[in-house]
């Protein structure tokens, strides 16, 4: 199993550009989520999904869009990039059968995004 | 919203020392996670616990539900243990994980 695969690892955008961060898992996990990690702050939840076709907002959803058309994939879209979205982004998944937050989380390797 | 505090923020120790990292939270939880993040690397789950103690190799995690406090211990520390250690408290909901800011650990040879 590859686990959670995140691409790209690095990305530089100009203000106003759009892009999609890809996240895929091959563990048949129901729960998938996106976090951003900023210096001096804990990881913060952007969006999450508890199954195909179901998504919801986390703590910091503004400026981001998600969809979950398959169990495996959970892409994160930046609609119009802003410098405030410069951050490191992590995708994570868990089985979703034992209670959300009460299961081991599997993280992708992260995407370092800079918005100029 | 749960408040999660970790201490210390930074810790430098010599190889072989016993390491303790602390995590306190403000609201009752259903589970507490300990994560490890190496420089420039991804995040790995070390432990998830809701009571008592768990051990994996040289790592030990404990939790005191009444005191709303958890500790991560590393015995016989090694330079490869150098990383950021993050605790996260779960309220049980799909959006219920609150993360601490992390403890940056450096183990010098």
Please provide a written account of the structure:
The complex is a heterodimer of chains A (116) and B (109). With 116 residues, chain A is mainly beta. Chain A is built from no helices and 11 strands. Chain A has strands spanning 4-7, 10-13, 19-25, 31-37, 44-51, 54-57, 64-66, 76-78, 87-94, 106-107, 111-115. The radius of gyration of chain A is 13 Å and the shape is globular. Chain A starts with a strand and ends with a strand. The model of chain A has no long low-confidence stretch (mean pLDDT 94). Chain B is mainly β and 109 residues long. Chain B has no helices and 11 strands. In chain B, the strands form 2 sheets. In chain B, strands 2, 4, 5, 9, 10 and 11 form a 6-stranded mixed sheet that branches. Chain B starts with a strand and ends with a strand. The chains are: A mainly beta (116), B mainly beta (109).
Please provide a brief summary of the model.
Chain A has 116 residues and is mostly beta strands. Chain A has no helices and eleven strands. The radius of gyration of chain A is 13 Å and the shape is globular.
